Structure formats: C-alpha cells, structure tokens
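---------- Forwarded message ----------

FYI, see the Glutamine amidotransferase record below. Original note from H. follows.
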Amino acid sequence: MRPFLFLAIRAEDAAADDEYAAVLRCAGLDERDLRRVRLEREELGPLDLDDWSGIVVGGGPWNVSDPEALKTPAQLRGEARLRDLARQVVDADSPFLGACYGVGTLGQLDGGVVDRSHPEPIGAVEVTLTEEGRADPLLGVLPETFSAFVGHKEAVARLPRGGVRLAGSPTCPVQAFRIGTRVWATQFHPELDVDGIVGRIEIYRDFGYYRPEEGASLVAAARAAVVTEPPRVLSRFVELAARP
C-alpha cells in the first residue's frame, strides 16, 4: 500500500504526539504507512499525489480567520502551503481528509467563508448527518446522529462552490462537508477520545478556548460524555483511499 501523509500544525509536543498516536490508532495504520510532517516547524515541498494513498490534516491552534498581523511566520508559511495543497487535491479529486483545521484549509476555496460566527467550546456535541451525509461513502458509515468532541473558534459560514454539507450540530451548521467525490473536511475531531480531549483541555488552558477557571468543569463534562463513533471516519477513509 502507498503510505498516507499526515500534516500536523501543533507546536506543543505533547499534543502533537498524542494526536499522531490517536490518528494511527483510529486509522489502523503504523508509522511506516502514515508519515508525519509537522508544518509548524518543517517545510513541505512539492507533492506528487500519486505517491500517496491520501492526505490527512489534523487540528491545532491556528485559525485562518486570525488577523494577518497576529500570525507567526510559521503560521503564514504553513497556511500558504496548505492553500496550495488544497487547490491541488481538489483539482485532482485526490483523497483528502481535514479534521478541524482542515475546515479552514478547504473552507476558503472558491467563494467559501470561514469566520467566527459559529464557535463551539471544548466538549461533546450532537452531530446529525444531512441526507447527503447519510449517502456519503465516508460519513455514511456513522449513525444519523452521534456525539463528537469539538473545540474551535472559527467555522464555515459559507461553503465553497461545489461543497456539499454532510453534517451539522445545533451550534455549528457545518460539521462536515465534501468537495468533489474524495475530498472531505470535518469540524469535529474524529481522533479524539476522552483521555485525548482531557489532555488538550490542560495543554490549551491559556489559548483562549475557555476561561481557565472553567477547566475542571470541562474535564468533568468530557469524562461524562459518551463518544464512540467518530473514529470510524478515519478507518473508513483508509478503506476508501488505500492504493497498492
């Protein structure tokens, strides 16, 4: 099988390594078959998409809607490279799955708008598939309604031209969408389990996702949540995209 490429943007080593380990576990891959590039500190050169089964983009504290003047050089460089890559995979209809920050990566293409109109605090939300989502080859393996972990400051306010809305939640209308037949983005985190989100609550305490005094209550709510279905998105993506 040709390997998959995992693109990460987390500068915090504990969060970055936990995310990579979670994606490996949920996708059913080993490090040989899921190569990681950390864009916050590495440059990604030109890609021949035929060398890869598919590409997965993880989440992190970058926001495409951040004021340009407040973005670090690493964020500006990484976002520019991801914009080019998004254009490349959409034009080729090559397998791509962007989780959380993947919404920012794909959501600004072709008239799409990503802004701060639909943020969600860290925790579990109820996600419901649309009719198109129920028929989708990737999201359609999930129940019509399921719980998923989220935590984001920005979201899609208007889909790119040709984008198909696949899922939403009460507080965020676009929880997943598809462009073409093989390019997907989810706002929710398919890789997160309870231990994973508790770790992120602690690591990102001072990143503006919540007031620090709310941390204990967020941890308690996360531990009480029942989130079982989202990891199937990653294993299903591998099933759909793997190429000899």
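H. also flagged this: The longest strand covers residues 120-129.
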